[in-house]
Write a structure and sequence with these properties.
Layout: H1 2-14, H2 16-32, H3 37-47, H4 49-57, H5 61-65, H6 69-73, H7 79-108, H8 115-138, H9 142-166, H10 176-201
């Protein structure tokens, strides 16, 4: 347990910039629009894509850039513990702020906020995080991983939306499972890339 807690502390330090971004995007609109929490929740939902990409992009790239691999090399920890720590630190705060914001959003827009729309939003959020996570395992810069993930997923989502809108009698949320699946697969691929690299660096 002490070893895992040490991993959590390490990953928390590496994600400080992304956590600050999450805090700003999660609280900023509520501070600026204190009299209209429902509208603030809409802005938070849009801005939430940024910390999702930042947290995914910081997963591995920042660790390599700051040479934290030496820290892992002297710790008798498993790759499962390493990955679990990263996922917990990244997804825990993001899931908490997203859940709270959705609660505010639904309470203020109970008639216009659909379950299908929220599901599509969460699937897109997962896709952005997943791609940033994968790119973080492949690229040297967390910023490049985050920005690339945002641009690629948002552009692909806009194209997807245009295609669905052009088709008649098609549920606009029909591609949501595709985004969720892509996000999950990207997370697994990033974990495999990172584990493979560590297997070559950590002592046997």
């Amino acid at each position: 347990m002490k070893k895992f807690l040490a991993l959590l502390r390490k990953d928390w330090r590496l994600n400080r910039a992304a956590m600050i971004t999450l805090l700003i995007t999660a609280l900023g609109p509520y501070v600026l629009l204190p009299g209209d929490p429902s509208q603030a929740a809409v802005y938070v939902s849009i801005l939430n894509f940024v910390p999702a990409a930042a947290l995914g992009g910081a997963a591995f790239a920042r660790e390599r850039r700051e040479h934290w691999d030496d820290f892992l090399a002297v710790m008798p920890v498993s790759q499962l513990q390493i990955i679990s720590s990263k996922l917990l630190v990244a997804l825990g705060p993001l899931a908490l702020t997203t859940t709270l914001n959705i609660a505010v959003l639904m309470s203020g827009h109970s008639n216009t906020t659909s379950i299908e729309g929220l599901s599509s939003y969460l699937c897109l959020l997962l896709a952005i995080f997943g791609l940033a996570w994968l790119l973080s395992a492949l690229l040297p810069s967390p910023a490049i991983a985050a920005v690339t993930s945002l641009l690629v997923v948002v552009a692909a989502a806009m194209i997807d939306s245009a295609i669905v809108d052009a088709a008649h009698h098609v549920n606009p949320n029909i591609t949501a499972p595709m985004w969720a699946g892509a996000g999950v697969l990207a997370v697994f691929a990033g974990c495999i890339c990172h584990a493979r690299r560590l297997s070559l660096e950590l002592p046997l």
